Amino acid sequence: MITVKNLHKSFDNNVVFDGFSLELPDRGFYAVSGPSGSGKTTLFRMICGLDTEYGGEINVEGKISYVFQENRLLPQMTAYENVFTVCGDKEKSLFLLKAVGLEDAADKYPSELSGGMNRRVAIARALSYEHDILLLDEPFTALDADIRDKIISLVKELEKDRLLLIITHDPDEISALGCDEIRI
Amino acid sequence: MKKRAKLPQPLKTLLSFLFWVGVWWIISLIVGREVLIPSPPAVAARLFELLKTSDFYISVLLSVARITAGFASAVVLGVITGVLCARYEAFDALLSPFFSVIKATPVASFIILALVWINKELIPVFISALMVLPVIHGNVRQGILQTDVQLLEMARIFGFGRKKTLKVVYLPSVLPYLYAGMKTCLGLAWKAGVASEVLCFAAYSIGNRLYQSKVYLETADMFAWTVTVIIISVIIEKLLMAAVSLHNKKNRYDNSKKSAQIV
Asked: Which positions in chain A touch B253 (Cβ < 8 Å)?
């Protein structure tokens, strides 16, 4: 469950949030949309506690997992190790890598994978982490349409009993996930 | 442009070595006085004679021990101060002028001051450490400050904890800087250490043997001891780099593609 009350946030003289409020239940899919620079990623960062310089109140009940806008993979670890180091479960790591279509690339390093493959590792890593809330910041960029559809189905299945927030500009992704839209 | 012919590295090293020994030999022949520039065979013969004496081994061993002790203590201290300065701004402000002074002061000034302050046998340890410390400190500090903030945030979100964050995020970032600093400083430690042995007459030391060669105008001895210093320095550097490479391979830090910078 996420509650945002009277949020104020600005960067120098640029006001991003001015009294923004939001209340989300402990399950359901929500798409956060808005023009570039409207504060979508900033909202995610404040929700998960990476940005604490704001006015107002944010309350989060539950553990958060996050697919960042960037992949943020550990370069010295293989795809498998990047997932395993987060969840500590061998079977779960291999299952998720297989689910995102990377069963043959599990022992490859990020520098040996394409942008899309690294993106899939980042998604598998976030899904592997024990969580109640999943934040996805433009997770499907750099993915082919068929792989994207496969991962959307996977996310829908795995996250059906949790709260999911996604930043995306693609109406197809919003409708495929069956999200309610939050415009900021 | 014509493509450069590629030679195997060992052959390149050998050819380069032979070329410079040749240059040395020619200069020695032109000068024609062994007391000024001894020929390579004369130096090699003297080196082989020295190799038969126990004094040679005691001097080499004690010099290696002193300089290694200085180098190792500077690495430990440099890591500690580097971490503290990267972590706490107050430490950085406090220690920054100290390291600036060390870097700017000529090594000879420190050797002469050390002669007044401490036991002469410890001077090479102190001087080697003093020359190495600012470089290791600077590199470790820089390595920590250059750690990828995005990876640190990722570690925080996924609840890595301090120990795991240190192991998987900080170490791969800092170690290339530390190793680059160690590689640079090894030669520095040797040069400063032997120079201080010359000036403080440390008993059973390469520096002392060099000084005595100069006093008695035994130029071949001087060259033989210098060659010894170069050989030991190269061997220690190769051993250190082999250990570093093994450690990198084991921990796969070389996959991080991070370039280490020397500050």
From this structure: 76
Query: What is the full DSSP assignment across B179-232?
Result: HHHHHHHHHHHHHHHHHHHHHHT-SS-HHHHHHHHHHTT-HHHHHHHHHHHHHH
In-domain check, residue B6: no
> Which residue out of B255, B257, B258, B259 would a mutagenesis test of the A interface target, given it has the greatest number of A Cβ atoms within 10 Å?
B255
Res B257 pLDDT > 50: no
Give yes or no for A68 touching B (CB within 8 A). Answer: yes
Question: Does any domain span residue B87?
Answer: yes
Residues of A in contact with B153 (CB under 8 A): 50, 68, 72
Provide, for chain A, the percentages of residues in helix, strand and coil under a 3-state DSSP scheme, each rounded to the nearest 5.
Answer: 35, 30, 35
A149 by DSSP, 3-state: which? helix
Cβ <8 Å between A76 and B255: yes
Instruction: State the greatest distance between any 2 C-alpha atoms of chain A, in Å, as a whole number.
Output: 49
Tokens coding B191: 């040069």
Q: Which domain holds residue B73?
A: 50-256
Q: For CA atoms A132, A59, A173, A114, give the dihedral sign.
A: negative
What's B234's domain CATH number?
A: 1.10.3720.10
Mutation pick from A74, A125, A132 vs chain B, by most beta carbons of B within 10 Å, is: A74
Q: What is the pTM of this model?
A: 0.82
* Position B261 in a domain: no
C-alpha of B80 from chain center: 19
Each of the 184 residues of chain A gets a pLDDT tens digit; together they read 899 999 999 998 889 999 999 999 999 999 999 888 889 999 999 999 999 999 999 999 999 999 999 999 999 999 999 999 999 999 999 999 999 999 999 999 999 999 999 999 999 999 999 999 999 999 998 889 899 999 999 999 999 999 999 998 888 888 999 999 998 8
Pairing of strands A28-33, A55-60: unpaired
A86 and B CB contact within 8 Å: yes
Q: Report the number of distinct structural domains present in chain B.
A: 1
Q: Report strand pairing: A64-67 vs A133-137.
A: parallel
Q: How many other CB atoms sit within 10 Å of the CB of residue A28?
A: 16
